[in-house]
Amino acid sequence: MEKIIETEAGYIDWDLFTDEAYDSEGNEIEGETYVKIENLFVNPDFRGNGCARALLTLAIASIHNSCTGLTVKIVAEPKEDSVEVEKLASFYESFGLEVVSV
After folding, report:
1. How many other CB atoms are found less than 10 A from the CB of residue 67?
2. 68: which residues sit within 8 A by CB, 6+ positions away?
3. Contact, 91 vs 99, CB < 8 A?
4. Are 65 and 58 in contact (CB under 8 A)?
5. Which pLDDT value is given to residue 27?
6. Model-level pTM?
7. Are 33 and 71 in contact (CB under 8 A)?
8. pLDDT along the chain (102 residues), means of 10
9. What pairs with residue 71 in β-bridges?
10. 41 within 8 A of 11, measured Cβ to Cβ
11. Residues near 45 by beta carbon (within 8 Å), at least 6 away in sequence
């Protein structure tokens, strides 16, 4: 189900995941299924113009249309040293997304 939105300004991609889960006896059971946005990248020439917000908004709308009822999570992994993880995580959380690790 991997999906991607690519524009001149950048790209965003996501996929469907199911967490591993175990019962009290250590037997594997079905875990939570969710959509995880793995990459959001805005080309340097387009930064500071709302492109990240626009890509994220488009992706979330597409996800909600095709994966009704699933939680949407995102990885806060800066592609450059100049971007602070905490600031990136706060930006994602402002969209109501749960920030997860890689």
Report:
1. 17
2. none
3. no
4. no
5. 87
6. 0.83
7. no
8. 89 92 86 92 92 96 92 88 87 94 66
9. 34
10. yes
11. none
